[in-house]
Amino acid sequence: MFSTQVNIPHSLFEITFSDRILTLGSCFSENIGNKLQDAYFPTFINPFGVMYNPMSVCQGIRYLLGEKEFTADDLFQSGSLWNSFAHSSAYSATSPDETLQKINSRLLATQYFLKETNVMMITLGTAWVFELADNGKIVSNCHKLPASRFNRLQ
Known about the structure:
Elements: E1 21-25, H1 27-38, E2 43-45, H2 54-65, E3 75-78, E4 81-84, H3 96-114, E5 119-123, E6 129-132, E7 138-139, E8 150-153
Parallel strand pairs: 1-2, 1-5
Antiparallel strand pairs: 3-4, 6-7, 6-8
């Protein structure tokens, strides 16, 4: 049987159970975050839901470090749901108040957790960035709206 031996040197960076870990980014970030939580690591997972591109992750970090509170002006209605372009559909709800409660309570909890965080894992899924065609605002999630509403940046 053929095999290739690979020597992996010991890393200078180690994660221990005393580390507080924040994951941001793609679905891999969510999956690895769940594995860490299952192993009892103090972990906060994707506070905006899954985000795939670097611009959306950067925008999310800015929200976490700033004093942002989302308002009804940050939402849009599609069908019976109220959504945020900065969040996945996990934060959508049938009323603006419920959507904002989900978004802002998670944002506040993450900001609190971040003050003690010493490990941040960021995973990216794509370099493609989408913006709203009518105002150029970068979106993290298109919420299955028609492609004509967005421009793809490269």
